[in-house]
Description:
The complex is a heterodimer.
Chain A: E1 21-26, H1 33-37, H2 43-52, H3 90-98, E2 103-108, H4 120-139, E3 145-150, H5 156-166, E4 172-178, H6 191-200, E5 204-207, H7 225-245, H8 248-251, E6 257-260, H9 266-280, H10 292-299, E7 300-303, H11 314-323, E8 328-329, H12 352-367
Helix pairs in contact in A: 5-6
Chain B: E1 3-8, E2 17-22, E3 25-32, E4 35-40, E5 54-63, E6 66-77, E7 84-86, E8 103-109, E9 127-131
Antiparallel strand pairs in B: 1-9, 2-3, 3-4, 4-8, 5-6, 6-7, 8-9
Amino acid sequence: MTVETIGQASATKPANQKLAIADCDIHPSPKSVEREIFPYLSKRWQDHYQTYGMLLRQPYQAGPAYPKGQPDAARRDAYGPNGEKPGSDLEFMRKHHLDPYNVQLGVLNPLKSGQGLQNPDFAAAYCKAINDWQIAEWTSKEARLKGSVCLPYEDGFLSAQEIERRAGDTNFIQAFMLIRTSEPMGNRRYWPIFSACQDANLPLAVHAFGFGGTPVTGGGWPSYYTEDMVGHSQSAQSLVSSMVLEGVFERWPKLKLIIVEAGFAWAPSLSWRLDRIWAQNRQELPHVKRPPSEYMAEHIWYTTQPFEEPDRRGHLKDVFEWIGWDKLLFATDYPHWDFDDPTRIPLPRATDEQKEGFFLGNARSLYGI
Amino acid sequence: MAKHIAAKVEDIPPGTRVSVEVAGRKVAIFNVDGEYFGLRDACPHMGGLLSEGVVIGLVEANKPGCYNYSRGGEIVRCPWHGWEFDLRTGKSRFDPKRWKTHSYDIEVGDGKEMHAETVDVSTEGDYVIVKF
Lengths: 369, 132
């Protein structure tokens, strides 16, 4: 089969489409930490930042452990007209992304937010500053955008404090952490987070990447970025298994978990395997009262970028049905290089209702807005 | 096959590229050491503008551990997902039979036989002409 480009290039003319979307993974960045974040950091932590920088719990002293697909992990066309960093200029984001793609709801997921810093107090102070910054620079200026409560998640108690601080604040629609935690995420050290999320009625989003200090695969440190990228599904599967088998969803039955940017086609096969092994080991896990697949189906949502792209899109139809059309949330990952264009992803054949839910309705009902 | 004036030669010095709209088609034109290549300015994957991609060479490994770099400046990498396309053919690097973007013939001429389209042809000098 030969595939050639037909029709208009969507990169410049997506405005032709009527599709309205929720984009559940947008990454904002400050133009300058000193100018935009320092106003929300105490002098003590400003000095710390300037003296020591932001040291993460990972090998290699600074920066990512692996290269990115493009510089700044960004689309090369996402720099502002004056060279502003991708995702750092609201006006440019409106023109380049929110308006042309008809984004009705954009969920801000700041990275480099203080999460994963080895110094726990610095992590908490920086996350709080990033949350203040989201209100000041983004959500107070653009009603389509909603913030995420960034958590210093390796410290469950400090994280719970931050969730309580933001509870009821409509600038935020979810709590936010990264997928590569120091210990499997159902571990007791993280329980204060789940409790606070349920109390605040905030879904908990867990985004790919992170700095747990453990290798990015279950088998050690790989050589290549490509392995780093496919490693997110491994991390997500460990996370889901841990959450279910530690009984987290029994203890917090209203907790909603969103897996962000870690794929989704793995979820059905994981649930089958979990169900079978759970059935064979009931004595080990009496607190897990129901088959693991039932907890997954009730409590977990998945954002879809980077979209699965099998040669035959029909293969995805089964995956969508296994997971449930109502559990999938469209996301672009703007401004990052592995951006998904809503008009170009190989969506399986769907009813109008399923499509509307996939692109917008599922997010609205999950977040209650 | 019609000819269309796309740009002035001086607008695309060696090592650069432009994006032009010619008779309703967006074309990315690359100048590689004085040789011109034209591709439809849209990646067949998700529509990224190839005119905004970096131009790289071909890194091959006939077997693991043996690397060969060739054809510097003749491969464009999409600014979004990094798909690589051969400027000479428009074919993708990873699956050239299935995935390609349209390749246009380009020539340089004085443009006198053509009517003015996107640029003023009354000025002296040569033009980059795209054929389709």
